[in-house]
Queue: 3 jobs
Job 1
Amino acid sequence: MNRSDVLIIGAGPTGLVLALWLSKLGIRPRIIDKSSSPGTTSRALAVQARTLELYRQLDLSQAVVQNGHRVGAANFWVKGEPVTRLPLSSIGEGLTPYAFLEIYPQDEHERLLIERLEAFGIRVERTTELEGFEETGDGITARLRLPDGQLEICQSCYLAGCDGARSIVRKTLDTGFPGGTYQQIFYVADVQGSGPAFNGELHVDLDEADFLAVFPLAGEGRARLIGTVRDERAERAETLRFEDVSSRAIEHMKVKVEQLNWFSTYRVHHRVADHFRTGRAFLLGDAAHVHSPAGGQGMNTGIGDAINLAWKLAAVLSGGAQARLLDTYEPERIAFARKLVATTDRVFSFVTAEGRLADLLRTRVAPFLLPKMASLETSREFLFRTVSQITLDYRGMPLSNGVAGHVHGGDRLPWAHDGEGDNFESLKCMGWQVHVYGDTSDEMIAWCNEHHLPLHVFGWRPAFEAAGLGRSGFYLLRPDTYVAIAETCSDPKVIERYFRDHGIRPFFGSP
């Protein structure tokens, strides 16, 4: 009987990232997908700054940035004319090494992840479908339908459902998926074209009718059109063609389409599963939460799920932690998913709302307010922090302790950079580590050496104070680079007690 440590159902970005992180940490996953080949008409585009920060751990960030497209600005149109331009090229300057909006289509993204996964000797098993599973003692027994139609019974220690909004894993677990479906029909068109909206920037139409956005892609004259259909056309979504929706883009944003590469329609849901874990089975990505595309959050949130779960599974499977560490996955991720769905729902409802008042707000009030907001550094910073996911935190969660400076346990470690260096360089390591900004005690140095816990001591500089870091305390960082302990003293017994209380015996660095 075939056996694996972790059986991953679904080879979208969430499943692939989970498999990659596990492989890097010395765990051999098995990943299957019912499709015969990777997707070629995917919808997700944005790779947020927090994802790029985490991708440094697998040396993926540079490849994404080099092959993707950095968006210089967002333009808002009313009545056939651009009325506001919001610069984006350095909107998060000083907050992250990736202070911009990066466009990297999901299909290209998946190919990169598959290539990196194959370097670990792991291949996606295609045309292979999960038919059911049950927990049996110390593992999961699953039934797989293979490409030749044969049924395979396999075992794994854990199962990860990364199989999308119609997840068979979620249905097998009988986990509720409350929420709703937006009335609008969405369409996506990948085109080659020309016109003022093909200048490499993002363009959004705020007019009275359907929502429409033009997203730039790498390469001359390439763009992705994303829009809604609300009138009688929505009733025949199954048969809609690009010709049925393209006239509005041509008329309102002066788009000249020279070649249509692909076109599809779909409905958008906003739902969060009641539970992200049942026993040895976990839900991640769209299997756990779906929401509107506002802000480009969906794929990035699924990737965040994968990284959160990967280091915990690796710790447990390698003997570096007790199984109760896995209890922290659901509370940490479900809280963010619920907040995200509520936030994107409000934004999406505003840009797609119907009626005279909604039209007035979009076409008159928004063009007046947006330039003022764009001119304020605080407004730009708030927008970037929210969309980039660098403000995602696990404050108040079981694995998060203390406060030092403005940094709480559970926060993402703030980035501090000046002419003398970058405090994120050591975060490429996938193990536990300690950061000190200022001075530390001989006891701390001796304890970290004895326990092989990497200790990074940075001489105090103004850049650290500006970032909100506390002086001469310490920060214990988790393998996913979030702060586990923020402490003002230099007593290593605080770390010792933390590991003992949580049943963790740290694994250091990558194998």
Job 2
Amino acid sequence: MSGTAAPDIPGLEFVRPLGSGGYADVYLYEQQQPRMNVAVKVLKRQGLTAAIRRQFVDEANTMAQLADHPFIVQVFRSDQTADGGAYLVMKYYPPPNLAQRAKAERLSVEEVLRSGIQIASAVETAHRAGIIHRDIKPANVLVSQYGQPGLTDFGIAGRGGHAEDVDEDVGVSVPWSAPEVLYGQSNGDARSDVYSLAATLWHLLVGRSPFEQPGGDNSAYALMPRIRATPVPATGRADVPVSLERLLSHAMAKNPDGRPQTALELARGLQAVEREQRLPSTAVVVLDETGRTAVSALPQARGADDHDRTSVRALSVPTAPVPVGAPAHGEDEDDEDAPATISGGVVLGVLALLVAVTVGVVVWAVNRGGDEGQAPVARPTRSQTGAPSRAVDYPEQPAIDARAVAGGVTFSWNYVGAEKGDFFQLRVGASEAAVPEAEVITVKTGSRYTAKAASGTTVCAQVKVSRSTGVPSPYSTIRCEAAG
């Protein structure tokens, strides 16, 4: 702690210190009416500037704006201390946070997927309110006594923008920050938050940040070049599915255009991995276009009318009969005491279902008999039978990286939903403008290609995934590098 005494706050009784950050200390207080524990974040007086004070006020307003979300830490109030300082009163989450947990224990893939979807829900909600978090990392994800994550520390959140908009007093957490933010090309946007969320999930699986080298130099100045140029390493865990490795690598693409463009898109990818691994599905909770809460329990099927709209999905079937036309739970009902009955419509519906099933069984039996003159009945897909489908059933846009090598440039790429038989088509040119007109190069095996060029010569390329079904992915963004 900074040594700053915990302030006297009306209605609150000091209990103990909780921690200290760059510009604030956090204390545990007991609220007297109603009696409950709360966390109080108090500005440090040392080094206090107008920018930090403004940042603190912005954090209070931002968190209050998002306070209703189940996975965002709730702010109860904000005020000034008697000596002119400032404080926030927030919901108390007992330790450890996710950074402490990941350091002390090995989190399961199931928990990381579930937490990732829930945090992505919070991030997507913030984005829809026009707010970029800018500091997503394991230490900023608290855990309630019921095991629910709570995203906190919106201290450097803002509306996004370019490097010239960055306040000199606003810092970033290097190990989990996107390269375009670290190198001043962006002040953060939805895609940089997607990167930080993916880096956070990678950290939760491994116990350290993605580009940290155990026993090596992990200072900010050593990490930054690795984040900018080194491919995302594998987690090294045998229980982490390949689909999750690829999704995290995709979400941490060096070029922001190569990542999932929204937190919701990343959440749907995580849901797909849950389905692939036969894990319980985790709902995405966001505000829809009308400002109402919408729950999306599963990724929408391809071909849906509105790919980006979330919807309410039924997760279970009632065990008791429900009368036709009965109001949904929570709606007005004319006679609350009237017993539930089964109408004739339900009986007829059940009989029709039995007939349909019987006919289906007969048709299946006839076709199984092998009559040559009759077309076979299409086999149901895994998703139709209720069994988990694969994470992605069509190739997504790949993320491409470039690395200078002696006498050329090596391009490598990754994507979600790889299948046996996939191959790749590259276009390589001497400039970005030349790439779209370049001759297509087919790569049958592997996910890398080295273009030969004289030292110092710029080489640019983009790649797409092709599948035996004839369904290709979109081309990746164009990546350029000077030959070594």
Job 3
Amino acid sequence: MRGPAAFVLSALVLSAPAAAQLAPPEQAITSAVEAGFEDDVALLEAMVNINSGTHNHEGVRAVADLLIPEFEALGFTTEFIDQSHVDRAGHLFARHEGNPGATRILMIGHIDTVFEPTSPFQTFIRDGDTAIGPGVNDNKGGIIVILSALRAMQAAGTLDSANIVVALTGDEEDAGYPIEQSREHLIRTGQWADVALGFEGLAVMEERDMGVVARRSSNNWTLNTTGQSGHSSRIFTDGAGYGAIYEMTRILDAFRRELPEENLTYNVGFMAGGTPAEMGEDNLSATTIGKTNIIPDSAVARGDLRTISQEQTERVAAAMQVIVDNNLTGTDAQISFNFRYPPMSPTDANRALLARLNVINADMGLEQMAEFPPALRGAADISFVAPYTDGLAGMGPNGSGAHAEGESVDLASFIRQAQRAAILMTRLAAEDYPRQEH
């Protein structure tokens, strides 16, 4: 095996300690998580069987209504933040006030799924320690890990001192626009927090749990090229030029050749060219007609841009613009960018959090977690708060098949993930966290 995976796995400590070193309250946490397992699975089933596709506003709100009593029973105050002004249902925030000066912790998840009411994939099915259903991992399973961890802290007496905000967005899979409004409350809470924990799915490589200290951005670009239509026999001449499709091809091939660097991708999702070629109103389709003996007058394409830092985003977008502006004879081109999810860059402070989690792994008798390659993860809501706070992502359960029919989750992973999270938050809540400059 070569490449990033081999490098990451070579850093793992392959032997676990012979004996755990948990304090009595932490031992109580592990026991409480295990004792609550079947209740957690029952709540997961109830959540999954409520359709909460992003655009099913009633369903998103129904899941929030199911969860509100769960948080209030733990001493949290809850608020459902309406987002109808951005054509989304809203977000559920739950707040717990602990000791003044103690670490301020933000737990992030989301209520919505990609499966709308029209999807045939609607029902929770359990087979032993595997569950299948829409959102069973992404992200309703993550919500269960959050609640299981908090219940265990309450049972162990460590929740009272903790300053925690749980932010469950209702549109993570398709954020409302303008995004500055749909993520306003999350960003404001990120500015309050010392530590952010993202409860998207656990990263696993070669059957080993991994730590997520970085996630890449998710942005879109749209490219339009134009040419002078005319008889195909005159193509490539100074008078007729190269046409819109050759200009589109030049640009996309230059992207392929000139832009590659570590942790950068720029997929072309779809394209069309002809006389004319037109983008669909939904920006998810294009139509065209043409003839082989006519120089095409227009071409359109859309793709994404994923980066590891804001600096990389800005630099690569500028390089793409330079390529677009170097037009072939008789053509023109324009590119526009839609910057959606920012990157969660790897930082020393994020790595220090992973090191703290690895101390807990050692105390629990679990293997050490190496850094998961960020190029293998998509974007998530934790990225919106990454500029303001230290963070760890991938704190949710282990699953597979997200965003597709047959999405599944390993129910046994709920236990170790909730235990890890609860012990980490217990230790953080017992101190005045050294806030980093961001």
